[in-house]
Amino acid sequence: MGERTGSRSRRRVAPRDPRSPREYAARNLRWWDRTAGWYERFHRPSLDREHGKAWGAFRIPERQLRLLGNVRGKRVLELGCGAADWSIALSRDGARVVGLDFSRTRLAQAREAVRRARVPVTLVRARAEAIPYPSAYFDLVLSDYGATTFADPERTVPEVSRVLRPGGTFVFAHASPFRSLAEHLGSDRLQQRFVRDYFGLGVLRRPESVEFQLPYGEWVRLFRSNGFSVDRLIEPKAPTTRRSTYFSSRDQAWARHWPVESIWRLVRSGPAPRAAARRRKAGRARSGVGIRQGPPGPAPRRAGLRRRR
Ligand SMILES: C[S@@+](CC[C@H](N)C(=O)[O-])C[C@H]1O[C@@H](n2cnc3c(N)ncnc32)[C@H](O)[C@@H]1O
């Protein structure tokens, strides 16, 4: 068979790059704007546990895991803050908190919660891949199934490294690679066998949204190349006593055999290597999904699903 030539083939559209923020962020933004009300109603009982200071789908108390330490007086960024439960709780503990999210609808929920809580949380509408703050500004960045699940880690990890001061901490909870290997993305159900290639992990396209996952070795490579050292990796076993709103009882039983989520605690150990800085620059130049960023600076702007975690 010969190669196709002529005007028809020239007009053919190049395949879309699933790792382009234009592709995945626009899709995820639509999804979050549409489902924010449902998510809030369905998961509010879980999110309220421990007054918002709890991790992951099983809401493991921070007082048990002790990942954040004393936050009083610290500059803290919550990446993909949703209704700002963590931001409010840490502000109550004396932190100077910024809650960042790209969804107007979720930020409206956050604004209302902050107003009710009467705490000083700065809310910013921006993408996690382009954080509108200067380098080395924050002491702590956290994300509880926030933007670290829904944005390309090859973009967010360098960006978090940039805004963290040396010695600063990055804590985030997300799905484990085990779950990503065993999950049927259409139904969200966990299978008793792996249903995709470990080496093919990367972009996980659900019918209406896009998530990201890496093999363990790739996570560690990404952290280290961006100046992070791994302090802890927690792989919680599902409790028998409490039901999560994020899992069916069948999937919660699955999570008593294999770790369904990972909670990483990373320390920004030193200057990010040059290669990472170059990638960051290139990433910023390529980014942009039509969200107006707040100007860089201390306070850019004030606004004062069963699953999908
Ligand atoms: C599961 S919620 C996490 C918030 C909170 N911890 C919770 O469980 O409700 C995920 C949040 O991340 C936000 N998000 C997803 N991708 C993002 C991105 N690229 N930049 C900023 N926010 C993003 C969504 O709008 C959503 O509010």
3D architecture notes:
The chain is of the alpha/beta class and 309 residues long. The chain has one domain: Vaccinia Virus protein VP39 (Rossmann fold, 3-Layer(aba) Sandwich). Helix content is 35%, strand content 19%. The chain has 11 helices and 11 strands. It has a 7-stranded mixed beta sheet, sandwiched between helices. It has a two-stranded antiparallel ribbon with strand order 1-2. β1 (54-55) and β2 (60-61) form a beta hairpin. Residues 1-10 and 282-305 have low confidence and may be disordered. It binds S-adenosylmethionine (SAM).
Brief overview, please?
Helices cover about 35% and strands about 20% of the residues.
The CATH architecture would be 3-Layer(aba) Sandwich
Instruction: State the domain count.
Output: 1
Q: For this structure, what is the CATH homologous superfamily? A: Vaccinia Virus protein VP39
**Spatial ordering of strands, largest sheet:** 5-4-3-6-7-11-10
Label the overall shape: globular
Q: Mean of residue pLDDT?
A: 87
CATH fold group: Rossmann fold
The rounded distance between the terminal residues' Cα atoms is 47 Å
* Ligand inventory: S-adenosylmethionine
Major sheet size, sense and barrel closure: 7 strands, mixed
Estimated helix fraction: 25-40%
Radius of gyration: 19 Å
- Which band does the percent of strand residues land in? 15-25%
Stretches where pLDDT falls below 50 for ≥5 residues? 1-10, 282-305
CATH class membership: Alpha Beta
Q: How many β-strand stretches? A: 11
Spell the H/E element sequence: HHEEHEHEHEEHHEHEEHEHEH
Secondary structure class reads: alpha/beta
